[in-house]
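Progress against Task 2.4 (sequence-to-structure conversion) is shown through the following example record, which the project officer requested during the mid-term review.
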Amino acid sequence: MAKKEDKNPVGRPRLADKELIKDSWCKIGVGIAFIFVFLICGIGVLTTRTPLQVITFQNPNKALASVAKTDDTVIIPAKKVKVIYPEETSKRIINTDGTITRIIPAK
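C-alpha cells generated for the chain above:
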C-alpha cells in the first residue's frame, strides 16, 4: 500500500503579528546604530581623531604656523676640533677581567 502524503495548506500564508513586526524593526534599528558607531570609531582610529572630531569634520593634524622674517638669523662657523685618539691618552684603567678603559682628559 502506498503511504499517505500530507497535503500542504493552500491559500494565503499567515502574516506576522504586530509584536513580531515591532521586534523586527527594533532589531534592525539597533543593528544600524551599531554599524554607525563602528564606522565612526573605525574612521577615528585610522585618522587618529576622536569620534567627536570625526562627526564634526575637524582635522587636528593640519599644521598651523606663521612665518617670521629670518633676517635676524646669525650663522656661526664651526670651530676646528682636535681629535684625540684613544691610543694617545695618558690614563689607562685595566679591570680585573682584562678589559682596558682609556680616559680622554677634558680641558
